[in-house]
Each structure stands twice: as C-alpha cells, then as structure tokens.
Amino acid sequence: MVKGGNVGQQIPGTNYYLAIPENPLGMGVIVIQEWWGLVPHIQSISDRFAEAGFAALAPDLYQGETATSPDEAQRMFMALNIEQTAKELESAVDCLLKHPSVTHKKLGVVGFCLGGQLALLAATVSDQIGAVVDFYGIHPNVHPDFSKLTAPVLGLFGEQDDFVPPAAVQQLAAQIQQAGGTIEAHVYPNAGHAFFNDTRPEAYNPAAAEDAWNRTVAFLQQRLITVE
Question: 54 and 135 in contact (C-beta within 8 Å)?
Fold first, then answer.
C-alpha cells in the first residue's frame, strides 16, 4: 500500500506540500499530481519519499481545487494552462533546491497520469532535473521538446491501460531515443491506468505498484548520485 506517515505539511503562503526526511540523503524529488489534484494520495506518496530519505515537494497545480468525479477531473485537466504550469514547475524546482536538506545539484521529478506527462515537460524546461519517472503519463496538450531532455527517464506503464496503450509507450520511447535521450520503460502485465493508486481499488495493482516503487527509488538514487 502507498502509505506515508503524515511527514509533510503545506508550506505557508504557497501551493506546495513539502515532506522532509528525518535522515536526509541530500536528494530531492518533485512529485506531480494526477488529474484529481493535490489530493491526500499524492501527499502520502510525498511522505513515502521522505521516509525513503528524499525531500519531496508536491506543487498544487489546481491552486487548491480537487476533483472527486471523472467528469470534474477531466474538466480541470483540460483547462490547465500548460505554459503557466511549466513556469510553476520551474519555481517548485528552485524552491526545493534551496531547502537545506537538499545538497545534490539536481532533483528527480516523478509524476502520475497528468503528472507523468508534466514530469517529462519539466525536464525539458529546467536544466536542474537529473532524473524523470513517468507513471503512465498522458495529456493531449503537453508536447515536451525532447531535444532539450538531458535527464534519463524511467517509464512505468500498464499493459491494459486504455489511455496509454503499449503502442503509445513504444512511440514515446522512440521519440525520446530519436531525440538523443534515454528511457527505460516497463510495461506491467494485468495492470491498467493508475495501477499505483491504492485509493482506487478498481485500478490498484499491488504487485505492479510494489515493483514500480522499488524501481523508482533505486533509479532516483542511482541517477541523482551521479550528478552530485
């Protein structure tokens, strides 16, 4: 289960949820929301990163709004101003890099669904990203310029994902590689979209989620330590 320990808190005067580890590794990670918004599930993932030793910051890209129904989430998802969001992600990166618990020069960025695609975008607009983890990222209006992608990518997808089917994963990998980037993509059998979200029993796949988490932590530790 993806459970954090109530480690983090909202930074006063900001739209950021910040979770700081008791025993920091010096590494930081930006955690980017699904289309539901900055809901407790995303906060719990940030807490879990903190428990693993990472300083984790989750920006609230909906400015305090959250969705409870797919129709509402779809509306907010499509209304997102991508240009403004890119600037907000850059600001979040700058904020976390200034935190005293972060001593490494570059951050990781991890996103889910909407956030997975935005994680790729963040790594093309900021040169302070050292590793990207894309959990089943999708957004029709987000088109990262992969020629500007210098960070390695870990992509985690479900074979039964109707939003990001295996053919779309192959296309994404080809686009990144053709632009000179690197991606390690894993497609989990018997897993669909949002397989990591343990608040959605109809989507959650415990085995895939556990493996994806272990891969994510190992990938971030390995990739970020090389840019110390």
Answer: no
* Region at 224 (left for phi over 0; alpha for psi -120 to 50; beta for the rest): alpha
**Residue-level pLDDT at 10:** 72
| Domains in the chain: boundaries | 9-225
CATH 3.10.450.50 is held by the domain 9-225:
no
Rounded Cα distance between 63 and 69, Å, is: 18
Give the count of beta carbons closer than 10 Å to the beta carbon of residue 140. Answer: 8
How far apart CA 162 and CA 75 sit, in angstroms, is 19
What is the tens place of the pLDDT at every residue in 105-135?
999 999 999 999 999 999 999 999 999 999 9
Which pLDDT value is given to residue 40? 94
29, 56 contact by CB (below 8 A): yes
pLDDT at 42: 96
Q: How confident is the model at residue 225 (pLDDT cuts 50, 70, 90)?
A: confident
